[in-house]
């Protein structure tokens, strides 16, 4: 097993199987769940610590923080716990994962966080992931359709995301593969970004697209998904493929490191994150209504 691919019990062989022969002729225009079955689902009835770790992004290259907020560990930081299971009539099973961000506004003592002394960075928020910084992957998959149903906050700084990293990148961070199924800005209710990053040389490359949505992502739940088949990657919004804004063609991105992943038995692991952007001016004044904000996730599913 290659670096970063140590598996906790419960992953299952489905996470490692090659793509089905039928998948190789897939039609990206079709509903990505058609002909596939759910092999994993977390409906967020509870916070399952055997599936999810909480806190900074798992890795060894840096402390794992980014943006204007510190990602809390289970139990919270600075007296604030951003993780909760809440009742929600709009959720599929009546409950949702709620990740919150709170402005502390005074000196913090979060280990290894660069913003403890900086007033604009004195926020606590949350990130859950199915991996740990020692390389353990609690849940990971190479192929399939991955989907989260989410409700984003309206806010001047929020930067929620549903994304994936490859297992080897934790302990061998010179190169990594990052798939950002959705990155949202809280002040753009009808636009989000999707990205594929293959970081590090040789062969660093990047793909990206803005996605315009009819629904307001801050007032309604929507499904954000990605289909990984062989060396191909297709991002979906409400189970419809995103399209090139210039040509209206379905965007099918190529994973140029697909063969390397197969050779190393590498997998992707998911992250669900509520971050705060640091590349926009800090609100002046910061309104009381903006000092606490929430993101909800109905479920996370894997289909193969």
Question: Explain this structure to me?
Answer:
InterPro entries: Beta-glucanase-like, ConA-like_dom_sf. GO terms for molecular function: hydrolase activity, hydrolyzing O-glycosyl compounds. It comes from Paracoccus liaowanqingii. Belongs to the glycosyl hydrolase 16 family. It holds the Pfam family Glyco_hydro_16. This protein has two helices and 17 strands. By secondary structure, the chain is mainly β. It has one domain: Jelly Rolls (Sandwich), CATH 2.60.120.200. A hairpin with a 2-residue loop joins strand 13 (232-237) and strand 14.
Labels describing this entry:
single chain; mainly beta; Jelly Rolls; 17-stranded mixed beta sheet; 17 strands; disordered N terminus; hydrolase activity, hydrolyzing O-glycosyl compounds
Q: Main sheet?
A: 17 strands, mixed
Identify low-pLDDT runs.
1-22
How many discrete domains?
1
Strand content: 35-45%
What structural class do the secondary elements suggest?
mainly beta
Care to give the gist of this entry?
The chain has 304 residues and is mainly beta. It has helices at 168-171, 258-263; strands at residues 38-42, 53-54, 69-71, 83-87, 95-103, 123-129, 144-151, 158-166, 176-184, 191-199, 205-212, 222-229, 232-237, 240-241, 253-254, 268-276, 292-303. The protein has a single domain (13-280, 291-303), classed as Sandwich (Jelly Rolls), CATH 2.60.120.200.
């Amino acid at each position: 097993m290659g670096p970063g691919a140590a598996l906790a019990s419960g992953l299952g062989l489905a996470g490692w199987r090659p793509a089905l022969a039928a998948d190789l002729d897939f039609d990206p225009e079709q509903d990505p769940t058609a002909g596939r079955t759910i092999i994993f689902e977390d409906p967020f009835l509870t916070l399952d610590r055997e599936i999810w770790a909480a806190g900074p992004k798992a890795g060894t290259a840096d402390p794992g923080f980014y943006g204007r907020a510190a990602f809390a560990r289970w139990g919270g930081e600075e007296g604030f716990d951003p993780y909760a299971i809440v009742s929600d009539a709009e959720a599929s099973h009546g409950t949702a994962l709620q990740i919150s961000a709170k402005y502390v506004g005074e000196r913090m003592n979060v280990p290894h966080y660069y913003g403890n002394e900086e007033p604009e960075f004195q926020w606590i928020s949350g990130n859950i992931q199915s991996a740990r910084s020692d390389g353990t992957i609690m849940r990971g998959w190479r192929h399939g359709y991955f989907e989260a149903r989410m409700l984003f906050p309206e806010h001047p700084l929020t930067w929620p995301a549903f994304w994936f990293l490859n297992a080897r990148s934790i302990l061998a961070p010179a190169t990594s593969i990052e798939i950002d199924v959705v990155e949202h800005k809280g002040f753009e209710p009808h636009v989000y970004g999707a990205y594929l990053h293959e970081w590090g040389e040789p062969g660093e490359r990047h793909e990206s697209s803005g996605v315009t949505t009819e629904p307001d992502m801050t007032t309604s739940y929507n499904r954000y998904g990605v289909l990984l088949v062989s060396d191909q990657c297709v991002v979906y919004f409400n189970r419809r493929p995103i399209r090139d804004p210039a040509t209206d063609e379905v965007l099918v991105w190529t994973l140029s490191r697909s063969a390397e992943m197969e050779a190393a038995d590498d997998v992707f692991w998911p992250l669900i994150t509520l971050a705060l952007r640091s590349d926009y001016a800090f609100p002046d004044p910061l309104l009381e209504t903006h000092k606490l904000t929430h993101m909800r996730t109905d479920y996370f599913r894997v289909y193969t």
